[in-house]
Amino acid sequence: xxxxxxxxxxxxxxxxxxxxxxxxxxxxxxxxxxxxxxxxxxxxxxxxxxxxxxxxxxxxxxxxxxxxxxxxxxxxxxxxxxxxxxxxxxxxxxxxxxxxxxxxxxxxxxxxxxxxxxxxxxxxxxxxxxxxxxxxxxxxxxxxxxxxxxxxxxxxxxxxxxxxxxxxxxxxxxxxxxxxxxxxxxxxxxxxxxxxxxxxxxxxxxxxxxxxxxxxxxxxxxxxxxxxxxxxxx
Length: 234
Fold this sequence. Notes:
By secondary structure, the chain is mainly α. The chain is 62% helix and 0% strand.
C-alpha cells in the first residue's frame, strides 16, 4: 500500500528535521578548532555556554549560530516541501520539522542521545517558524539576562513567554503546540538549573565559576578554563 503525499511529507519532515537537529555543532567546532572534545569540559554540555568555557569565543559563536541555524533550516525545508503538494498542511509540516530538529539537538543519535539544553535551537526554530514570537522570546532573554545576569533564568522566562505570545498573535494551533512542546522540554533539561536558582546558587553571567559549581554532573573545570559566560545556554 502506497503512502499518501501528505504522509510522505510528514515522514520527511520528521526524519529530516531530526537528522538536522542532531548535528552536534559544539562537538564539531571544538574538535576542529583544536579545543578538544567539549564533552570533557565544564558541564559536559555541547551548547554554546559550555563551549565558551574553553576560552574560545569564536567557537562559541559558531556553536550558537549552528545550533540556532539548524532549527531554522529545518523549518525552511518544511516550508519548501509544503509548496510541492497542493493542499499540504504547511503549519503542521513546519511544526513537525521544527519539533523533530529540537528533539535531535536534545537527543542526538550520534552522541548516544546526550545533547544540549535546546535554548539556541528553540530561538532559531521560532525565528523561522513564527518570527514575531521568536523576536519576543529573544528580547525577553536579553532583558532578563541584562537585569538579573542569569542565563538560565533568562532562558526559562523566554521559553515560558513564547506559547502565550503565539496564542495572542493568533498563530496556527500547530505552532502554538510546538512552542509548548519545546518550552516543556527546555524546563525539563534545566532541572538542575532550576534547583540552583531556587537556592540562590546559580552562577551569574560574567562570574567566575568554581570547579564544582553548576556542572550538572560534568567533570570539574581546570583553572585555565575559568572563563566568563556570555552566551545563552544552548
